[in-house]
Amino acid sequence: MRQIVETIEADVQSRPSAIEFEMAYQARIAIDRIKFAIKHADQFGKPCDAMREAGMQLLDALQRLESLDRRFQARSGIATPRMNGNSREANSNAGRECQ
Q1: Closest C-alpha to 56, from 69, 43, 37
Q2: From CA 83, how far away is CA 85, in angstroms rounded?
Q3: What band does 82 get if pLDDT is binned at 50, 70 and 90?
Q4: 51 in a structural domain
């Protein structure tokens, strides 16, 4: 009986909790919104040092959230490849000044 209880407890502890699923969901929403912000900043923003720095900050936040999302997916057994191709776009305006 004790071995059965230990097996069940180990299985429960190895799976994400409800709050972890909620946090993963919120992280995915933030990832999508950051991607949207990066895309629109590149498309409509004035190319200058301030915009480039903002883009770099957004990319850093995006990479952190995507890393967190990958760890959650690995832990929960969900595997969905996510690619980030925005770093090339953010760096394309390097060296330009505000006008």
Answers
A1: 37
A2: 6
A3: low
A4: yes
